[in-house]
Amino acid sequence: MTRQQFSNLIDALTPALQVQREQVLRTRRGHERMVAPGTGAKAKLTPADRVRATVLHLRKLATMDLLGQLFGVTAMTISRAKQEVRPLLETHGHRVDTSSARFRTPADVATFLASNPTPTKVKKTS
Q: Residue 28's domain spans which residues?
């Protein structure tokens, strides 16, 4: 999957994730919102991060513990994100293939990135 395809996937799933989160909150409260959206506890992961973590886990690139460390949350938060995003991926017809690479620690990721540097383009401003 190219970066553009991945970005398009995130853009397609973000509205559905936001609607899904609001429905869960409404069910938990037992009624509609009584205060403006944006108040109250914030989600630990953005919708884009939820999609990223789910795709990385479905590709079997990293354990939930490692993803939790990389995203600054617990493995349980990653697990919940996966449970929310996976059905949406299937609904939108996206199939995630597994990868041959496996990472278990942040050091594994750093070693992999150091051995495979990707060229970065810097846009010069005048």
A: 3-32+44-100
The predicted-structure confidence for 76-94, as pLDDT tens digits, reads as follows 999 999 999 999 998 888 8
Q: Which of 56, 53, 52 is nearest to 97 (CA)?
A: 56
As to burial, measured by CB atoms within 10 angstroms (0-12 exposed, 13-18 middle, 19+ buried), residue 121 is exposed
Name the domain count of the chain.
1
Q: Which residues contact 88 (CB under 8 A, 6 or more apart)?
A: 13, 16, 17, 20
Closest by Cα among 6, 17, 16, 4 to 94: 6
Q: Which residue has the higher pLDDT, 90 or 22?
A: 90
CB 81 within 8 A of CB 115: no
